[in-house]
Design brief:
The chain has 191 residues and is α+β, with helices and mostly antiparallel strands. 30% of the residues lie in helices and 26% in strands. The protein starts with 11 loop residues before the first strand and ends with a helix.
Length: 191
C-alpha cells in the first residue's frame, strides 16, 4: 500500500532531552504527543519517553526521529523495529523512516526477493553453494580422468613417472564438493 508523509517537519530528539508530554494517540496506542523545546510537536513511541516529576514533563530515553518514509507498492523495506502499529524501516537506498504496519506486507517468498536484489536474503549465497558443488565435483572427475589419460610409466632409469598430484587433488575436490553440497541442502531446507 502506498504511504505519503503528513508531517513535513518531523520531530527529532536525543536521549536525555527534556520534553513536554501530551496525550496518548487514540488511533495508535503506545504513541504520545511530544513537544520539543523549540515548540515543534509530533508523535513518539511512549517507550522512548520517561515521565518525570509531573504528568506533562518527560525525558527522552533514546534517540528518535519521527521522519515518515514515502513508500509505493513494491518497494523493498527492511524492518528495524515495530512500535504501536508502525514499522521503523530502511529502504534499499538506505533511507530510514516510519511507515504504518498496514502499508507493509511481509514477503513470504525469499527466492523472488533475492532475485530482485533484496539486502536481507541469503538466497544468492545458496545458489553459489549449488554451483560450487557441481564445479568441484566436475573438477574431481577431471583430475582422475586426467590421471588415467596421462598414464604412468617407468623410464629407462627405473623411475616411475606419473601425474600423482592429480589423485589427492581429485579427492580434495570431491570432499569440498560434498561439503558445499551439504551447505546448499541446508540453506535450501531453510526456505
Amino acid at each position: 500500500m502506498r504511504h505519503r508523509t503528513s508531517y513535513p517537519d518531523p520531530i527529532a530528539f536525543k536521549a536525555n532531552d527534556l520534553l513536554q508530554i501530551g496525550a496518548e494517540d487514540a488511533e495508535y496506542p503506545g504513541w504520545i504527543r511530544v513537544t520539543l523545546n523549540d515548540g515543534n510537536e509530533g508523535w513518539a513511541p511512549a517507550d522512548f519517553v520517561r515521565v518525570l516529576d509531573g504528568p506533562a514533563r518527560g525525558m527522552a530515553t533514546a534517540d528518535y526521529c519521527a521522519r515518515e518514509l514515502d513508500v509505493d507498492v513494491g518497494d523493498e523495506l527492511q524492518i528495524l523495529g515495530t512500535y504501536g502499529g508502525w514499522h521503523h524501516v530502511v529502504n534499499v537506498a538506505g533511507e530510514e523512516g516510519w511507515v504504518p504496519q498496514a502499508c507493509v506486507r511481509r514477503n513470504e517468498r525469499p527466492r523472488q526477493r533475492a532475485r530482485q536484489g533484496s539486502v536481507t536474503s541469503g538466497a544468492p549465497m545458496r545458489g553459489t553453494f549449488g554451483w560450487l558443488s557441481v564445479t568441484l565435483l566436475a573438477g574431481a572427475f577431471a583430475c582422475w580422468g586426467g590421471y588415467l589419460w596421462i598414464g604412468a610409466e617407468v623410464d629407462a632409469d627405473g623411475i616411475l613417472r606419473e601425474p600423482f598430484a592429480l589423485i589427492p587433488l581429485g579427492w580434495m575436490c570431491l570432499i569440498a564438493a560434498l561439503i558445499s553440497g551439504v551447505a546448499w541442502l541446508f540453506m535450501r531446507s531453510r526456505d
